[in-house]
């Protein structure tokens, strides 16, 4: 499955395997640059329980997300620097009319994971559960935020 995901995407796309406490995993596309984070999963028509998108930020903060231009509902997971869940929102519906509501963690986060709606319940995830993943070496343009991410992942 991972091979087909990688071969179907442009070479610039990066993926990471994320492991849950129950031993299950998903292959998550990485959203690292401001453009990738702004686009997210917009316009995607389907998503499997084995897929996701991981947003990487250069520093902990209160990052907001919305469901504008989304077609499918999602589960939202905010993670701290230890990859522990600090906030969850389940079955977040697509925004049908503006203004779209913002969804923000109540605790500062360093990572944000989007999964198919129902994933949190299916895996019985809860706040303080730890997820496991190793970020690949990534190439970043020179903005301060992107240099911070580069420093964070050690490349």
Which labels suit this protein?
two-stranded antiparallel ribbon; 155 residues; 4 helices; disordered N terminus; globular; Jelly Rolls; alpha+beta
Give an overview of the whole structure:
The strands form 2 sheets. The chain has a 6-stranded mixed beta sheet. Strands 4-7 form a two-stranded antiparallel sheet. Residues about 1-10 have low confidence and may be disordered. Helix 2 (about 35-40) links the parallel strand 2 (about 25-30) and strand 3 (about 50-60). The protein is an alpha+beta fold and about 160 residues long. It has 4 helices and 8 strands. The chain is globular, with a radius of gyration of 15 Å. About 15% of the residues lie in helices and about 30% in strands. It has a single domain (about 1-150), classed as Protein of unknown function DUF192 (Jelly Rolls, Sandwich).
Give a short overview.
With 155 residues, the chain is an alpha+beta fold.
Structural class: alpha+beta
- At the fourth CATH level, what is the homologous superfamily? Protein of unknown function DUF192
Distance between the termini: 27 Å
Q: What's the main sheet like?
A: 6 strands, mixed
Instruction: Please mark out the parts with pLDDT under 50 across 5 or more consecutive residues, or reply none.
Output: 1-12
Second rung of CATH, namely the architecture: Sandwich
The CATH topology assignment is Jelly Rolls
Question: What sequence of helices (H) and strands (E) makes up the elements?
Answer: HEEHEEEEEEHH
